[in-house]
Structures are given as structure tokens and as C-alpha cells.
Design a protein that fits this description.
This protein has 14 helices and 2 strands. The chain is an all-alpha fold. The protein has 2 domains: 26 residues, no CATH class; 232 residues, no CATH class. Strands 1-2 form a two-stranded antiparallel sheet. A hairpin with a 2-residue loop joins strand 1 and strand 2. The chain starts with 12 loop residues before the first helix and ends with a helix.
């Protein structure tokens, strides 16, 4: 016989303690094996496994070299379409001269802080810093040169030689400046000034690293202006009274390799230049090349 539903409001003590008073068809008592209270007690008696925590990797602290490099935009390079933009010879010389002077100041100040023995022995001012390879070997690296800690980082001799010898190219270009230097690719000039910026970062000199970055930005902005002017001259070249091409522009454009990527304007100008003068296909023939090259320059300057 089915159990009668109890009156509303009536709950036995056993049902109340077991929280099963809502089940009227199968009443529950404390001693019942189906009692949820007993089941819950068994769960409470089981040992609880503590969650295992995965090891957290500690952030690697960056060196002063890395911090300054990031803050000053060391690895922000020249845009590819500006690589072969012609730049005036005097502009190139001025940028390289200021970069060399800045490199001398960076090295001089760095020696004063981290190499006082060499500083007092060798230099009375930045102008005395000579970045020739032999001069550095005879002054800075002479004797038993040991590892040094610079701006919190230990450098071996080979590493310092790498950063310092990078200044040799700028030193040579300024001391022996000639036309081939003035037609260097923009990214080559940018790389040279970048080396100066990196030297400042090695010595922990953020202020001078920013100065080197400013020189690089000046180079980039100058290349953009030159490219804009070149495009305007090219578009108006066939009109009467058009501005003639400048010699520094022709010197640079004639030496652009066909296989190298370059912007659309420079590509089309170079194509027109070489299509008009296909006879010069071997510029390593000195006499014939130079004679024809002068004729090309003169004809372009007069008629374009």
C-alpha cells in the first residue's frame, strides 16, 4: 500500500536531518544506505588533492643595451623604395662627418667612465680618437686587454672589437671622401650611422643614441625629398623649359643594378636611361665607358 502523503507542514526529524523530506514515496532515515547525508560524509572523509601549480617563468630582465636599442629605434631601417635615391654629395659628407664626430664623443665619454686607465693614457679630447683599425690596436686594445663590464654587461675583447671596428668605415669615408661615396645607397649610409647609434647603446649613453637616431631620420627625410623632386622632374622632363637633370642624380641612377628592388619612379627612369644608351653594356671597360658616360651625362643635362 502506497504511503499516504503527510499533511502540509509536517516533517519528521529524520527526514529534516537528511534533507530528504521532499521525497514522499521513499522516505529516508539516518540509518538508510541511500541517505545523502551519509554519502556526503564519505566524500568529506576522502583526502583532497591540492591543485598543482605550473611553474611560472620569471621575466628575463633586459640589459641596458637592449633597453636603449628599443627606446631609440635602433632596428628601424630605411624604407626599401628609398635605397637608391640620389642624394647630393655635400649632404652625404655632412651627415657622415657629424656621425663620425658623434662616434668620437661616444667613445671618449665611454672610456672616461669604463676605461679610465686608457682614457688618461691616450686621449685629451674626442678629436684624438682615431677609428683606424691599426690605431685602435695600438692604443685601445694594446697590451693584455681583459674583459670589461660596460653598463652592466660583460664584454669580451672580440665583442668590443666588433662594435668599435664598425666605426672604421665612416672614418675612411670621411677622411677619403670621393664621388663613389656620394653615390652610396641610402641603406648603406643608414647602416653606418646605425653602428654609431649601437655604439652609444653599448656604452649606455641614451642621449647620444638619440642623436644618432636623429641623424638617421634626417637621412631618411632627405631621401624622401630627393625622391619627390626626382619624380616631379621625371614627369615634366619632356615639356619645354623643364629642369635639367643634375649630375649627382645621373651618377647615382646609372649605377643602379637592374636586379635590385627599387621604387617605381627610379625603376622607370633607369630603364629610360639605359634604353637610350644600350651601347654601354660593359662599364668595366674604362676608356670607352668613361668617354661614352660623359656624353650621356652632357646630353641628358642639356636636353632633359
Amino acid at each position: 500500500m502506497a504511503k499516504q502523503r503527510p499533511c502540509v507542514g509536517y516533517i519528521s526529524e529524520e527526514e529534516y536531518e537528511c534533507d530528504s523530506y521532499m521525497s514522499y514515496e521513499s522516505p529516508c532515515t539516518r540509518d538508510s544506505p541511500d541517505c545523502p547525508r551519509e554519502t556526503n560524509q564519505e566524500l568529506l572523509d576522502e583526502p583532497i588533492e591540492e591543485p598543482t601549480e605550473e611553474p611560472v617563468e620569471e621575466p628575463v630582465e633586459k640589459t641596458i643595451l637592449e633597453l636603449i636599442s628599443e627606446k631609440t629605434g635602433l632596428n628601424r631601417y630605411t624604407e626599401s623604395h628609398l635605397a637608391y635615391t640620389p642624394i647630393r654629395s655635400e649632404v652625404v659628407y655632412d651627415l657622415l662627418s657629424r656621425s663620425l664626430r658623434l662616434a668620437q664623443e661616444i667613445f671618449y665619454d665611454g672610456c672616461r667612465i669604463y676605461f679610465p686607465d686608457i682614457y688618461y693614457r691616450e686621449y685629451d679630447g674626442p678629436h684624438e680618437v682615431r677609428f683606424g683599425w691599426k690605431e685602435m690596436q695600438d692604443s685601445f686594445f694594446r697590451g693584455d686587454f681583459t674583459d670589461r663590464i660596460i653598463a652592466g654587461k660583460r664584454y669580451q675583447r672580440s665583442a668590443l672589437e666588433y662594435y668599435i671596428n664598425n666605426m672604421t668605415w665612416i672614418r675612411n669615408q670621411v677622411c677619403h671622401f670621393q664621388s663613389c661615396t656620394s653615390v652610396c645607397q641610402v641603406d648603406t649610409l643608414d647602416k653606418a650611422i646605425r653602428d654609431v647609434q649601437e655604439l652609444a647603446a653599448v656604452f649606455g649613453d641614451e642621449a647620444k643614441a638619440l642623436q644618432a637616431r636623429a641623424l638617421r631620420d634626417e637621412l631618411h627625410q632627405g631621401a624622401k625629398r630627393e625622391l619627390s623632386e626626382l619624380e616631379t622632374m621625371w614627369l615634366l622632363a619632356e615639356l619645354p623649359g623643364a629642369r635639367p637633370w643634375q649630375r649627382y642624380q645621373l651618377h647615382s641612377l646609372w649605377k643602379v643594378p637592374d636586379s635590385h628592388p627599387k621604387g617605381e619612379v627610379i625603376t622607370r627612369i633607369c630603364q629610360e636611361l639605359k634604353e637610350k644608351h644600350r651601347s654601354i653594356d660593359r662599364p668595366y671597360w674604362p676608356s670607352a665607358y668613361l668617354e661614352a658616360y660623359r656624353d650621356i651625362l652632357d646630353s641628358w643635362t642639356e636636353h632633359l
